[in-house]
Design a protein that fits this description.
The structure holds 2 protein chains of 2 kinds.
Chain A: E1 3-12, E2 15-25, E3 30-34, H1 41-49, E4 56-61, E5 64-65, E6 76-79, H2 91-100, H3 110-123, H4 139-151, E7 157-161, H5 169-186, E8 189-194, H6 197-203, E9 206-211, E10 214-219, H7 221-226, H8 231-236, E11 241-248, E12 251-253, E13 257-258, E14 270-276, E15 281-285, E16 291-298, E17 302-308, E18 314-316, E19 319-320, E20 332-337, E21 341-343
Chain B: H1 6-51, H2 55-63, H3 66-99, H4 105-117, H5 120-131, H6 138-143, H7 152-163, H8 165-178, H9 181-188, H10 193-222, H11 225-230, H12 241-251, H13 256-283
Chain lengths: 370, 286
């Protein structure tokens, strides 16, 4: 099922959570909606499911207007973040629910339903849990049941809200590759919501990055990683160091910083901001360097030197310990930028103003580790 | 004089503190037991003692007088009508408040609680003023030959008013706490409205519903103030059991009759209490 969403808007009271969303999802695609909490990704998913209605905009699926179809008639499989299994029904009855509630004319016979449920249980690798109640299952098992319940109605579109959010890391990795195979075998169009970059990029064909009710960028992992479309995406992708630079003849220039490894780009001269990931900035010991190592912490494999700059800037970078001999507190260094993204304009309302010295920020290794 | 080591001093201090605490606990427990015995247990025992003062045959004769039997019968009818109506009302109100946002939602939540804070006699009087001969709807009712006051409909209406909050109050917090995800899941799986209710909502609230129904029934059986205003209090016709007990007592306070009738009401209450206790653990009150 190809899904086409155009200019979708939704407000809750005065709070506008979707500010004009446009996406085209191809038939059979696996799409991740990635963004921080409050970016509107769950609301978008609920609108596609028919659990919420937009204020304006279009939602067409294979050419049909889905905003004119009730949720129960859309035949979507929706997996809730906390599974929302029916606690008083066995696993078997949970999975059979979508078939049992069909009108008599469309409902398969009891034997057919029983066989179908058994097939699904085998497929989900949980046939031994058929007669348990949801309360007796672990988180990962519940997730499988929830997915089985959604798949039982042979959904045309599969929607998952933070499918692995409530699971521990090991189970999460396990289920991730398993979900990919479920998607490939069922052939449905799948959209899932997550705030975990690794999850999004590992699993999805394309990732939709959302921020504050808008789509910031749509692309594959490599595209988004190498060419973030906005400062928001750059920050979200872990480029937490924002260095004020001057553009001069297509090159970014900053005191004490070696930017020769960044490609020359057709940019107008003037102030700009260079977004860099902490691992893409190498401090090179240099007696004449303008930057100083303030302190160094080590995880054994990775050093995290805190650097101070000529204009009072301060941030931490990451470097493999073996690749950085002589990097001690008090050492003078020059910074070499391995790769980074330049944005000449700072959109209104975003922090970090071009031309001013970078403020002191706490720098998480990656956003997802919050 | 013996000198205590620091350790001994600490131990002694702790011992004294513990002994003090234990003493406080004992005093509190004793107080609670004595109060319960005097305020609650003693009157109950007294009722049964007086009811059986003339032996079982006297007791039996007292509660099988036509008027008392009729009162029991009337009370049963009122309860049988009131409980299902309030169960339906409670579910409807709880559903509306828990699942929808609409103007006046907060107000509705408050209004449902009004019968709890208003004395039942006020309910009775307001029904009198509304449906009475000189009341607002009086002429209309007379014209259409509808009798509400001093008859079964009036008794039922007042009892409905008094017991209206019980079911809603039990079900609403539960529905709010459970959220609507399970119901939404059912909808995405293709369930129609009534299927969602029958297979998902109802099983989720069934114990709270039953608990509310038991409370509602206990209150309906025992209702006195409001009913006494609108029933007309005709023995053998519009006297419910609580009214009949008062009547018997006023007629002859020494007789077995009043206490025998009271003991039946007490037994109904005790049965309700046991049912409530059993339900407590299941509906999550325990």
């Amino acid at each position: 099922m190809a899904i086409e969403i155009a200019q979708l808007r939704k407000s809750f009271g005065r709070n506008e959570v979707l500010k004009g969303i446009d996406i085209a999802v191809e038939d059979g695609e696996l799409i991740a909606l990635l963004g921080p909490s409050g970016s509107g990704k769950t609301t978008l998913l609920r609108i596609i499911a028919g659990l919420d209605w937009p204020d304006s905009g279009r939602l067409d699926v294979d050419g049909a207007d889905w905003l004119a179809i009730a949720a129960r008639d859309r035949r979507i499989g929706f997996v809730f973040q906390h599974y929302a299994l029916f606690p008083h029904m066995t696993v078997r009855d949970n999975i059979a629910f979508g078939l049992m509630v069909r009108p008599k004319a469309e409902r398969p016979g009891k034997a057919v339903i029983a066989r179908k449920v058994m097939e699904l249980l085998q497929f989900l690798q949980i046939p031994h849990l058929a007669d348990r109640l949801p309360g007796q299952l672990s988180g990962g098992q519940r997730q499988r049941v929830a997915l089985g319940r959604a798949l039982a109605i042979e959904p045309r579109v599969l929607l998952l809200d933070e499918p692995f959010g409530a699971l521990d890391a090991a189970v999460r990795r396990d289920l991730r590759s398993w979900l990919r195979s479920v998607h490939d075998e069922s052939g449905s169009t799948t959209i899932f919501v997550t705030h975990d970059q690794d999850e999004a990029f590992e699993l999805a064909d394309r990732v939709v990055i959302m921020g504050e009710g808008r789509i910031e960028q749509i692309g594959t992992a490599d595209q988004i990683h190498d060419h973030p479309a906005s400062p928001f995406v750059a920050r979200f992708m872990g480029a937490t160091i924002e260095l004020p630079v001057q553009i001069s003849a297509g090159r970014a220039v900053a005191a004490g910083v070696d930017t020769s490894r960044i490609e020359r780009r057709a940019l107008a001269d003037g102030p700009a901001t260079l977004f860099i990931r902490p691992a893409d900035l190498t401090p090179v010991p240099d007696a004449a360097g303008l930057w100083r190592v303030k302190q160094v912490t080590s995880t054994g494999a990775v050093l995290r030197p805190v650097l101070t700059g000529p204009e009072g800037q301060e941030f931490a970078v990451e470097i493999l310990r073996r690749a950085a001999p002589g990097l001690e507190a008090g050492a003078r260094v020059t910074l070499r930028v391995e790769t980074g993204t330049i944005f000449t304009e700072t959109p209104p309302g975003q922090r970090g103003q071009v031309g001013q010295s970078a403020e002191l920020k706490d720098i998480p290794l990656k956003e997802k580790q919050k | 004089m013996t000198v205590m080591t620091a350790q001994e001093q600490v131990a002694a201090g702790r011992h004294a503190a513990m002994a003090g605490e234990r003493r406080t606990a004992r005093v509190l427990i004793a107080l609670a037991l004595v109060t319960t015995a005097f305020l609650i247990l003693a009157p109950l025992v007294y009722i049964f003692w007086r009811a059986f003062a003339e032996g079982t045959s006297g007791y039996w004769a007292a509660i099988t007088t036509p008027e008392t039997l009729h009162a029991i019968w009337l009370t049963v009818i009122v309860t049988v009508v009131v409980v299902p109506v309030n169960v339906a009302f409670g579910i409807a109100v709880a559903w509306a408040i828990a699942r929808f946002r609409f103007p006046g939602r907060g107000l509705l939540m408050t209004i449902v609680e009004i019968p709890f804070s208003i004395s039942p006699i006020i309910a009775g009087i307001s029904y009198l003023l509304l449906y009475g001969r000189q009341g607002f709807l009086g002429p209309f009712l007379r014209e259409h030959d509808i009798t509400i006051l001093f008859a079964l409909p009036g008794i039922i209406l007042v009892t409905l008013f008094v017991t209206a909050p019980f079911v809603a109050r039990e079900v609403l917090p539960l529905m709010l706490a459970k959220g609507s995800e399970q119901e939404e899941a059912a909808v995405t799986l293709g369930a129609r409205g009534w299927q969602v209710f029958r297979y998902v909502t109802l099983p989720g609230i069934r114990w709270a519903l039953l608990y509310g129904a038991v409370l509602c029934a206990a209150r309906a059986v025992g209702e006195f103030g409001g009913v006494s205003v609108v029933s007309g209090r005709v023995a053998g016709q519009t006297n419910t059991l609580p009214l009949q007990i008062e009547l018997l007592y006023n007629e002859m306070s020494t007789s077995v009759a009043a206490f025998a009738a009271a003991s039946t009401l007490t037994m109904i209450a005790i049965v309700a209490l046991i049912a409530k206790t059993l339900l407590d653990s299941r509906s999550g009150h325990g």
